[in-house]
Amino acid sequence: MATPTLDKADAAGTPEPGFADSPYITVTLRVRRFNPEVAAEATWQDFQLEMDPKERVLDALHKIKWDVDGSLTFRRSCAHGICGSDAMRINGKNRLACKTLIKDINPEKPITVEPIKGLTVLKDLVVDMEPFFQAYRDVMPFLITKDTNEPTRERLQSAEDRERFDDTTKCILCAACTSSCPVFWNDGQYFGPAAIVNAHRFIFDSRDEAGEQRLEILNDKDGVWRCRTTFNCTDACPRGIEVTKAIQEVKRALITRRL
Amino acid sequence: MSTETTATGIGPVEGSGAHEGSYGVDNPAPFIEPPRKRTKKTPRSTRGNFEMYGWLFMRLSGIVLVVLVLGHLLIQLVLDGGVSKVGFAFVAGRWASPWWQVWDLAMLWLAMLHGANGLRTIINDYAESVKSRLWLKGLLYTATVWTIVLGTLVIFTFDPNIR
């Protein structure tokens, strides 16, 4: 009971660090640069910036691109964690640059920023997303119904039925999960976690009627059975989707429907 | 707002020799080559339940093997004076009983198929060229079939009176 009071008194006595004079600190951003028109190999480049630790890594990248070196290339659209454009490998972990605060990733040491792995790097932090979206298209990520369900009126669904696939509706297709998967790194033929998550979203939707087709697609030799349950995808997901659990549910659905 | 740049590239990442331990500034994560893209030439893989049965077999044989192998180790190494009792006469005595014949046969087949299927998936995951996959799998299947045939032959044709 006494502890909070003491803390408060202490906090009132000494000004919070950072707010005393200037909130800015010097941050070193170590960016992996690659320009196929200049060199065949990627190199690391250091940038020293004055940043507020409460700013995001994306703000640091903006500062570089707008004020220091306009040739730095990266993707971003909404800059608020919804569009899924700016997934990158920050300090060795797949994250969204727009959701990663500088103070959360130890600004004392240089912060490494790399493109996501397993996809061809086009320039700096931009990768070729085509194999990723090809796998996504392969699982038919759209509602399929029979002719008897004309799209003329609202189709109702119970709250329980909606809850069944709620987790997998959160995917923003940023590729953080797929590009953290060791099976995908080595062999891009694997569908990857993101495609399976988006198949899961329709397989377990009570209104959808092509679940069997989607399961057949994922029963492929490059489908769900290549998952090694390493949980990299669940750790990487910036939306907190339980990706590995979704993959396991698809496996279970395949086994129970086939046997 | 300082915008000074130290454009000191620290050189290529590859071949730094450091790849163990946690990744950081001085030990960056290794570069991974881009994967094969799906093109029109990529063969459409056959649809079938083989991979599903393979996955199920690994789980089920694993459970059975826990009982078989731990029981085997207990009998061979712990009970009745431990490993010193194991000799030709001990094996001959055990294989006189159909129970232990079936036990050893099940252990041989399940362990070999479980291990072979595990190595098959590792080869699929890590061998990149078609040629190395073919060679590694050929070697694996040959060794598996050879061991299973030889072991089965010994269990069924074992002669305790051999001189």
From TrEMBL, chain A:
| Functional pathway | Carbohydrate metabolism; tricarboxylic acid cycle
Please give the Gene3D superfamilies that the UniProt record associates with this protein.
3.10.20.30, Alpha-helical ferredoxin
UniProt keyword Iron, yes or no: yes
Outline the extent of the 2Fe-2S ferredoxin-type domain. Answer: 25-119
Q: Which UniProt keywords apply?
A: 2Fe-2S, 3Fe-4S, 4Fe-4S, Iron, Iron-sulfur, Metal-binding, Oxidoreductase, Tricarboxylic acid cycle
Q: Which residues form a coiled coil?
A: none
Q: Which cofactor does it need?
A: [3Fe-4S] cluster; [2Fe-2S] cluster; [4Fe-4S] cluster
EC main group: oxidoreductase
Q: What is this protein called?
A: Fumarate reductase iron-sulfur subunit
Please give the organism: Streptomyces griseoaurantiacus M045
From TrEMBL, chain B:
Renumbered to this chain, region (Disordered) spans 1-45
Q: Which domain of life is it from?
A: Bacteria
CDD domains associated with the record: SQR_TypeA_SdhD_like
Matching InterPro entries = SQR/QFR_C/D, SuccDH_FuR_B_TM-su
Q: Name one Pfam family in it.
A: Sdh_cyt
**Which terms are listed as keywords in the entry?**
Heme, Iron, Membrane, Metal-binding, Transmembrane, Transmembrane helix
Q: Where is this protein found?
A: Membrane
Q: Please state the protein's primary subcellular location.
A: membrane
Q: Which GO terms describe its molecular function?
A: metal ion binding
Write out the GO cellular component annotations: membrane
Q: What is this protein called?
A: Succinate dehydrogenase membrane subunit
